From TrEMBL:
Name of the protein in question: Fumarylacetoacetate hydrolase family protein
InterPro entries xrefs: Fumarylacetoacetase-like_C, Fumarylacetoacetase_C_sf
Fumarylacetoacetase-like C-terminal domain boundaries: 28-227
Alphabetized UniProt keyword annotations: Hydrolase, Metal-binding
Sample GO molecular function, one term: hydrolase activity
A Pfam family annotated for this UniProt entry: FAA_hydrolase
Length: 231
């Protein structure tokens, strides 16, 4: 084994439903504006042009039922509920017809966003990293293997804050379905086992405050819950 000048960081991972073994996370890819209604609420008219992706560090992932401190540098932390695709077999230039064969399972995730920092970056034509790729910005529920879920193409996607529904949509509203998302992502990056793809959020994104109880789910896959703590 290689020697290191200090101990390597622990391997980021996600729970697997019904298993003690965990899913090791390699990279996190996120699809922007993949629901038409959300694209409109963010000021964009949706068109079926190739989707764009942004990334988060693997160690941004945290488990469900975690208390997440309100992050620094922001006064406008937003929730975005998403179905997450867990890649179990890698590849490049994957054919859409074969893309679902690369899926290990599905989960429910949150793309937490420092919206004020993202908005400032957009205005200045700068990267979104400070708005999207911060610590604990990718909560993820347990991954449910494909053998149990199949490949869901329909199902309610929802999020509630303190018991009040804020986001609600359906998987059949995805502009780019999972197979296409995998295929397009693999044209730019070689996907490998351990990658997570957050597939986009329905309309209704909004601000969170310390003390908020956040719950969400995707029918047929599962649910996630977090608490926003003090800064």
């Amino acid at each position: 084994m290689a020697d290191f000048v200090f101990p390597p960081a622990p391997q980021p991972s996600v729970a697997v439903a019904g298993e003690e073994a965990r899913f090791p996370v390699r990279r996190i890819f996120c699809v922007g504006r993949n629901y038409a209604a959300h694209a409109r609420e963010m000021g964009h008219e949706p068109e079926r042009e190739p989707p764009f992706f942004f990334t988060k560090p693997a160690d941004a992932v945290v488990d469900t039922d975690t208390v997440i401190p309100y992050p620094s540098l922001t006064k406008d932390l937003h929730h975005e509920i998403e179905m997450v695709v867990a890649i179990g077999k890698g590849g490049s230039d994957i054919d859409p017809a074969d893309a679902l064969d690369h899926v290990y399972g599905y989960a429910v995730g949150l793309d937490l966003t420092r919206r004020d920092l993202q908005g400032e970056a957009k205005k200045k034509g700068r990267p979104w990293d400070w708005g999207k790729a911060f610590d604990r910005s990718s909560p993820c529920g347990p991954i449910v293997p494909v053998a149990e879920t199949g490949h869901p193409s329909q199902g309610r996607v929802w999020l509630a804050v303190n018991g009040e529904i804020r986001q609600e949509g359906d998987l059949d509203e995805l502009i780019w379905p999972v197979a296409d998302v995998i295929a397009l992502c693999s044209q730019a990056m070689e996907l490998k086992a351990g990658d997570l793809i957050y597939t986009g959020t329905p309309a209704g994104v909004g601000a969170l405050q310390p003390g908020d109880q956040v719950e969400g789910g995707v029918d047929g896959i599962g649910e996630i819950a977090i608490t926003i703590g003090e800064a």
